[in-house]
Amino acid sequence: GFELEIASSGRVIPVRADQSALAALLAAGIDIPMSCEQGVCGTCLTRVKAGTPDHRDQYLTPEEQAANDQFLPCCSRASSARLVLDL
Ligand code: FES
């Protein structure tokens, strides 16, 4: 697992290995728009302020993925211990 930090509040939300980052956010009461939940539509796109996403989507271009400043929480994870989200 890894942790998500909400930049605006400093709140830290753990993501278990058996749940998506999106599921962890929704369970914590943080509303993220979503649709496909498979990394193809881009609806759940969320800005990342710090940390390194482990991109598993098919929506962002390789260049966008490499910039590490946004990710798709319905399918992507983190390769750092924590991602700070611009929420
Ligand atoms: Fe479609 Fe995340 S909900 S990419």
UniProtKB/TrEMBL annotation:
Domain (2Fe-2S ferredoxin-type): residue spans on this chain: 2-87
The protein's name: Oxidoreductase
The organism of origin for this protein: Hydrogenophaga aromaticivorans
